[in-house]
Design brief:
This protein is mainly α. It is built from three helices and no strands.
Length: 98
């Protein structure tokens, strides 16, 4: 029984090593793709919050409440953060290999 387990462990290690050797050249591309995608996905809620603040500003303006300026500033800040994150994510997705 020990010889069968030893052969199984040897084959498992050989298969894992061959997979690692085949995938290792792709690691920088996959890492950059993952980071770029995550950053673009982080930009999405910021842009959605910007839209919600703008819609809130419109409703506040129609209601005649004095909080329109605060809502517009919030939308501006969220829009800036979302654009910066989206540009960083796009730069990571498009950047050549270093």
């Amino acid at each position: 029984m020990g010889l069968v387990n030893l052969a199984k462990a040897y084959l498992t290690n050989q298969i894992e090593d061959s997979i690692k050797e085949a995938i290792s050249p792709l690691a920088p591309y996959l890492r950059r793709l993952a980071f770029g995608t995550v950053i673009v996905l982080l930009a999405t809620p910021a842009l959605v919050l910007c839209l919600l603040a703008l819609v809130g500003a419109v409703f506040l303006a129609f209601a005649g409440l004095p909080y329109v300026a605060a809502s517009l500033w919030t939308a501006l800040v969220c829009f800036g953060a979302g654009i910066v994150l989206a540009l960083i994510g796009a730069m990571l997705l498009k950047s050549p290999r270093r």
